[in-house]
Design a protein that fits this description.
mainly beta; five-stranded antiparallel beta sheet; 3 helices; SOD-like_Cu/Zn_dom_sf; metal ion binding; Cu-Zn family superoxide dismutase
């Protein structure tokens, strides 16, 4: 894991140990070599891929509610499950609840259509009918309060394929307001 990835993961509170802690008796009986008595070994799940971004939001509509705002997004896949966390700051012009989603295309300032449709596992796999729900897409709904900040997180039962993708924030009417490009490490 690169230093940049560690920094982004720490910034949004994703960096931590993934695993389960056994009870004291189980820990004593199953202590791996090199783990002192009285300490617990915590197994760590391997990370399949990490996609992240940290920076100013690119505006998709003139004088949009996210002008001047920044965001951090981290997407960590473990096998067939993915955890995603989005944190937006500096959005003093935006109040209310917004939706953000993983899109199939790039984030291009001023061109919301460039981001393409939502990333949907039915579409990627060629399944019909296409269902749009939290099991097949990444939905990150968040509320911006008086501080101009908002956070969302989700876990989905799939690992998105790497590519030139983006997180798009939709305005309160559903229009594409801002985006952030994703980079896979």
């Amino acid at each position: 894991m690169t230093g940049r990835v560690r920094g982004v993961l720490a910034a949004v509170g994703v960096l931590g140990v993934v695993g389960a802690i056994a009870g004291p008796m189980a820990a004593a009986q199953n202590r791996p070599p090199g783990v002192p008595r009285g300490e617990i070994a915590i197994p760590v799940a391997p990370v399949s891929s990490v996609a992240s971004s940290n920076g100013p939001l690119r505006q998709l509509e003139p004088n949009g509610p996210f002008r001047g705002a920044r965001a951090v997004v981290v997407m960590v896949s473990h096998g067939a499950r993915t955890s995603v966390r989005l944190h937006v700051t500096g959005a003093e012009h935006a109040r209310g609840t917004f939706g953000a989603h993983l899109h199939t295309g790039p984030c291009v300032a001023g061109d919301g259509a460039a981001a393409g449709p939502h990333y949907n596992t039915d579409v990627i796999a060629g399944r019909k009918p296409v269902r749009m729900d939290r099991e097949r897409e990444i939905w990150l709904d968040f509320t911006v309060g008086p501080s101009g900040a908002g956070t969302a997180s989700t876990v989905v039962p799939f690992a998105p394929k790497p590519g030139n993708r983006s997180i798009v924030i939709h305005g309160t009417t559903g229009a594409r307001a801002a985006c952030l490009p994703l980079t896979w490490d």
